[in-house]
Amino acid sequence: DQQVKQNSPSLSVQEGRISILNCDYTNSMFDYFLWYKKYPAEGPTFLISISSIKDKNEDGRFTVFLNKSAKHLSLHIVPSQPGDSAVYFCAASPDLTSGSRLTFGEGTQLTVNP
Amino acid sequence: NAGVTQTPKFRILKIGQSMTLQCTQDMNHNYMYWYRQDPGMGLKLIYYSVGAGITDKGEVPNGYNVSRSTTEDFPLRLELAAPSQTSVYFCASSSQAPQHFGDGTRLSIL
To answer: Which of A10, A52, A84, A92 could cross-link to A31 by cystine, CB 3.0-4.6 Å?
Structure first.
C-alpha cells in the first residue's frame, strides 16, 4: 500500500528552464508535506515543506504547490541549475508535532543539462 | 557541526553474521529514526525512538533490533544477516519536523 507515490522515476530538463516534480498521496490524514533532495553517497537534505492550511510555499527558486482535493503536490524549480541534479523525495506526515513519522515516495531523479 | 553521524559507511557481511550500525547525533534531538532504502524505492522506517529508553517498530522491523540508552546514540542491530537486508541504511533525528539525516551505511550481505 504505497501511500505516497512519485510516478516519474526520472526527469530531464535544460538549464534555465522549469523543473516540475509531482507527488500524489492517498491518506487523507496527511497534513504536512516535505521535499528532500539527495545527492549520491549522501543522506537526504530537507528542501521545503508545506502545511495543509496553505496551497503554496515559496523559498527562492523552489515553490511547492498543494492541491488537497486532488491529493497532489508538486515542486517547481525555476530556473533549474546543473547543481539541482539529484534525487528528490516527497514525504508526508499526519502533523508537524515533534517526531512525526514520515512516509516517503519512491523518488524522482532530476537531471539538469547545461 | 557534525549533525547525524553514521558508522561504518560501507560493510560486507556473510549470511548469518551479526553487526551493529552506529548512529549518533549532537543536536540534542529527542526523536531518532532508522530507515532503509532499496534501489528505486523510497525510505522505509525500520524503528524509531521518542527519547532515551523508548523505542517502537516502524514499517519494516523484522530482523532488526534497536536500543536507546542515551539521547545521542541509537544503534541498529542485525542479528542474523540475510541477503534481503542488503540495502542503504539511514539514521535521522529531529525535535520537530524536518528530520535531519546522516550520510548512510551501505550494507551488502553475501
So the answer is: A52
The minimum CA-CA distance between B80 and chain A, rounded to whole Å, is 26
For residue A20, the distance in angstroms to the closest alpha carbon of chain B comes to: 19
For A30-63, the pLDDT digits (tens) are: 999 999 999 999 999 999 999 999 999 999 999 9
CA proximity to B87, closest of B13, B5, B2: B13
Closest residue on chain B to A93 (Cα)? B97
Cα separation, A34 vs A91, in Å, equals 5
Closest CA to B73 of B59, B46, B55: B55
What's the rounded Cα separation, in Å, for the pair B98 and B110? Answer: 35
- Which of B42, B50, B102 is opposite residue A43, by nearest beta carbon? B102
